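Fill in residues.
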């Protein structure tokens, strides 16, 4: 039977294993909504387009399967762009499908006509307009594959309404006759060269980007680190070498004499490899699937265009020669030093973790919440000063943070995606009072789809990250535009139908969390916190 383009597209997504469409409805995508009825795919209908993209981003990072967002044209599409940038920097595999004004009307001033592809290109791996309904299946298959291969990232397809509504005759699926070029094999000379540099180095270090720091790829990093006695650190914070999660390990970076960058850009987050953040004598090796990120000039001494996971495994297999070498003991001591520095916290933190003062210090919040994270919980954190405190002050097996983009406001939709991906695990979302305002209405989404996340709001009644920067740069008497009200965000969630708690005294933290968990509802615990500047660990920073 003939099918519409919309039906073909939905069938293509289902065939690819896509289970959820994170979406906000609109004129140009109603044919896709209709085509999804009765099919094995779920519409998760959000309250803002950016939230749909954040959810797709979170799904991609947690499952390593592309999250798919479906939005309408024009303003709907444009509302997603900042979220796409966050996904691009976090190296998240995802696909944005946007409705588009009719192909036949392009250039005539059609309703909500805008160059959506041009808007999306700077914040995606690829973006294109699907101009023919017969190309929909191929476009979806190509886009989903592209989102995952090499350095993962978002891909965009714009879908004109007349392409989606067109009726097409059944098309036989064409089998691929040629195998895709493999990036598994790397010239043995590259492996030998990298291994020789690692062997010669006294204090080698492996730094990896966001995608390489996730479980699927991190195992390859750990394998090389173990065989070679080389410390390895994931770099996914917008604060880069000042990432509070690194603790004292940030001061070890300047001691390295060789840094192997595996899927990690030599960018602002590493201060471009320059002194004093790295030693003047330090040299870098880059392994990257994205050739545009390779910098074959000092301080980079070797670049390899390859998928990092595969070459790391090849190096690890060849690295048995490091065992028993004269440098083995030296490297093991170096690795132990970096590991200890990463795990250590300042002595004064112990007092702050047990402090009874009000407002509550963020570390006192960490102390109360850590036992709940130990219950196989998923940790989600936004940016800002409170976000940095909880990232530094707590440990979790599964964590999602706002990522290198440095954007804020994504944590609630990221938390919803985490609950969809891990329905049996508690999901705790940590965010400041400023970031709460971005997507607070996604608690309505949480209630409609029964996704009982628990939001821990650090409420200091200000945009504290900017407030602290103003103090540093201009002086305390010139702070401006950062004040907020000490609002009862818990009451907002109660009004929507969720569970709300206000905590003003540290003794009430644990009981409040226990009640929130017992409620079985999406919950907000609104905590009056001290407006403390985020911790820094770099010497002389």
């Amino acid at each position: 039977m003939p099918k519409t383009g919309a039906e073909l597209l939905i069938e293509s997504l289902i065939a690819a294993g896509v289970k959820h469409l994170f979406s906000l409805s609109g004129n140009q995508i109603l044919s896709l909504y209709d085509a999804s009825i009765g099919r094995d795919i779920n519409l998760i209908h959000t309250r803002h387009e950016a939230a749909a993209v954040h959810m797709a981003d979170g799904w991609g990072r947690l499952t390593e399967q592309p999250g798919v967002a479906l939005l309408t044209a024009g303003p709907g599409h444009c509302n997603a762009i900042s979220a796409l940038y966050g996904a691009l920097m976090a190296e998240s595999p995802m696909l944005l499908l946007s409705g588009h004004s009719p192909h036949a009307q392009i250039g005539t001033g059609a309703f909500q006509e805008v160059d959506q592809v041009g808007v999306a290109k700077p914040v995606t791996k690829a973006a294109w307009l699907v101009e023919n309904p017969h190309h929909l299946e191929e476009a979806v298959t190509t886009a989903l594959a592209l989102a995952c291969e090499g350095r993962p990232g978002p891909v965009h397809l714009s879908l004109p309404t007349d392409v989606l509504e067109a009726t097409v005759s059944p098309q036989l699926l064409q089998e691929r006759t040629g195998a895709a070029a493999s990036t598994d094999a790397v010239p043995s000379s590259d492996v030998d060269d990298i291994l020789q540099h690692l062997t010669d180095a006294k204090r080698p270090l492996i730094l990896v980007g966001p995608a390489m720091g996730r479980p699927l790829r991190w195992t390859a990093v750990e394998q090389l680190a173990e065989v070679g006695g080389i410390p390895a650190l994931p770099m996914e914070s917008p604060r880069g070498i000042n990432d509070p999660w690194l603790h004292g390990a940030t001061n070890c970076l300047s001691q390295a004499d060789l840094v192997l960058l595996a899927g990690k850009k030599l960018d602002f987050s590493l201060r471009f490899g320059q002194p004093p953040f790295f030693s003047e004598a330090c040299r870098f090796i880059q392994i990257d699937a994205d050739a545009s990120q390779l910098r074959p000039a000092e301080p980079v001494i070797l670049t390899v265009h390859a998928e990092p996971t595969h070459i790391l495994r090849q190096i690890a297999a060849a690295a048995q020669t490091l065992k028993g070498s004269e440098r083995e003991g030296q490297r093991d001591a170096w690795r132990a030093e970096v590991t200890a520095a990463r795990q250590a916290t300042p002595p004064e933190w112990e007092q702050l973790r047990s402090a009874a003062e009000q407002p509550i210090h963020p570390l006192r919040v960490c102390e109360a919440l850590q036992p709940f994270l130990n219950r196989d919980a998923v940790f989600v954190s936004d940016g800002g000063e409170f976000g940095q405190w909880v990232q530094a002050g707590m440990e979790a097996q599964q964590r999602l943070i706002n990522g290198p983009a440095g954007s804020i406001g994504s944590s609630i939709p990221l938390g919803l995606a985490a609950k969809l991906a891990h329905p049996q695990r508690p999901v705790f979302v940590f965010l400041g009072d400023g970031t709460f305002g971005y997507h607070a209405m996604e608690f309505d989404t949480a209630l409609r789809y029964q996704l009982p996340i628990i939001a821990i709001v650090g409420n200091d009644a200000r945009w504290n990250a900017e407030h602290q920067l103003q103090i540093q740069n201009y002086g305390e008497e010139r702070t401006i535009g950062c004040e907020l009200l000490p609002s009862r965000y818990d009451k907002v969630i109660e009004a929507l139908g969720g569970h709300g708690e206000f905590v003003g005294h540290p003794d009430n933290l644990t009981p409040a969390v226990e009640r929130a968990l017992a409620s079985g509802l999406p919950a907000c615990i609104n905590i009056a916190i001290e407006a403390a500047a985020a911790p820094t660990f770099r010497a002389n920073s």
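The longest helix spans residues 328-343.
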